[in-house]
Amino acid sequence: MKNSIITLFMSISLYSFSQTNTWNGSTDNDWHKACNWSLNAIPVSTHNVVIPTVGTYPLITGNAHCRTLSITSTATNTLTINSSGGGNLCVSSTNGGACSTTLTDNGGCAVPGSAFGSGGCGTCTLGVFTCLFPIPASGDCISLNNPTDFDITLNIAGASGTVYPPPCGSFSPSTTLLIPAMSTRSLCFNVPSGCCPFTNAEPINIPWTSTDGFSGNTTVIIRTDID
After folding, report:
1. How many CB atoms lie within 10 A of CB 123?
2. Rg of the chain over CA atoms, in angstroms?
3. What confidence tier does 12 reach under pLDDT thresholds 50, 70, 90?
4. Beta carbons within 8 Å of 201's beta carbon, 6+ residues apart
5. Cα torsion at 69, 72, 78, 82 (round to 10°)?
6. Domains, the chain, ranges and CATH?
């Protein structure tokens, strides 16, 4: 038989006090991909696996492990084990111990652009620029980290704020800043000699877009010390 299908409600409870890992099928039907699970990890022999009602249900094509299995969805074909393709579900036990087979990891989980969040550093602070005359030419930089699998582009020219653009001082680069996937780039604010760009800490919003379609804003605060 090519496929063994477990349907409706099934609960295998061998022992308790383990971590619950819930199937969400956010990427596809592959049991062996971390991004399809609530813990962002493929279930191991210490996980209580729960399969609720979702749009996509898991297919096991390799070595799969769990501690307990609970299928709470009333849908049919909620779990398919492709035995002819090497599918094998091992449920650990108190007598036989944890599963000994090598867990199958099919990878393929890209980190989405949304993981860039508010801009790679939360709310970033640039400066401090001292407004005591005469002010030397000065500048300060921050590092923006892109932890995703997609390129992020900051639209520097589209930055906005209550008092932005200032009467003097500017970002470098001044138009766009490309942060390639899994990379870090610097964003600087330059202040010419004799210039005080702001009178206090001013937040500036810089819009960004990702090559997978996500977008957001990076908040940069320019601090100026006028004392």
Report:
1. 11
2. 26
3. very low
4. 125, 221, 222, 223, 224
5. 10
6. 4-91 (no CATH), 113-225 (2.60.40.10)
- Continuous segment of H or E residues that includes residue 65: strand 63-66
Strand intervals (E) in 131-169: 138-146, 152-155
Cα–Cα distance, 186 to 15 (Å, whole number): 51
C-alpha angle 76/82/85, rounded to 5°?
A: 165
Tell me the one-letter amino acid at 191.
Answer: V
pTM here? Answer: 0.59
User: Which pair of tokens denotes residue 18?
Assistant: 């383990």
CA distances to 2, 129, 163, 170, 191 from 167, rounded to whole Å, are 72, 14, 9, 9, 11
Tell me whether residue 193 is exposed, middle or buried, using C-beta atoms within 10 angstroms of its C-beta: 0 to 12, 13 to 18, 19 or more.
exposed
Sheet hosting strand 152-155, strand order edge to edge: 124-130, 215-225, 202-210, 152-155, 176-179
Residues 87, 162: Cα–Cα separation, whole Å? 59
Chain position carrying tokens 């989980």: 109
Q: C-alpha angle 120/124/199, rounded to 5°?
A: 160
Mean pLDDT for the stretch of residues 52-79 = 94
Q: Is the N-terminal amide bond of 134 cis, ω within 30° of 0?
A: yes
Percentages helix, strand, coil for the chain (3-state, rounded to 5) are: 5, 40, 50
- Average per-residue pLDDT for the chain: 83
Q: Which helix (H) or strand (E) holds 68?
A: strand 68-71
pLDDT given for residue 17 in this prediction: 53
